[in-house]
Backbone:
């Protein structure tokens, strides 16, 4: 598999995980996008794209018990961002 394909797959996976996390935590995406002219959301997106906890994130999202708590897991670098917009 070439580097371009691996990058594409990673981008797809990480962006999907971020979307699922925002949905699970009921993040107000519109207000998040407006904060600081979108710079806060852009930073959060980059944090998810470069996150090394993709497998843990996927497992956490699969667990309904944890997802119902309404707070991102401790390993999530966007935990405070998600909490601020939930």
Residues:
């Amino acid at each position: 598999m070439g580097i371009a394909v691996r990058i594409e797959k990673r981008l797809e996976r990480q962006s999907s995980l971020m979307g699922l996390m925002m949905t699970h935590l009921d993040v107000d995406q519109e207000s998040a996008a407006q904060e600081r002219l979108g710079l806060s959301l852009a930073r959060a997106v980059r944090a998810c794209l470069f996150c090394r906890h993709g497998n843990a994130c996927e497992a956490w999202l699969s667990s309904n018990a944890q997802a119902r708590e309404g707070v991102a897991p401790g390993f999530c670098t966007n935990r405070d961002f998600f909490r601020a917009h939930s």
